[in-house]
Prior knowledge:
Elements: H1 4-18, H2 28-33, H3 40-77
Amino acid sequence: MFSKxxxxxxxxxITLFALSISANAQCAMCRAALGGDGxxxxxxxxxxxxxxLMMIPYVLVAGVGFAVYRLYKKKKAE
Length: 78
């Protein structure tokens, strides 16, 4: 049938879905700053900043992954 770990995983997933809280798309300050139609340039600047901040963790993880790959490859060649 089901193993204990699969039942625990299903229970955790169901609990997370049941307790999820919907979030607004923007914080109050961003919404106030970008509320009108005349703020197209400022809205684009905020979007660019979000993308910039989002890229940093991915670049760091990719760098660590590449370093681990090189160490694994070097150790395997020995």
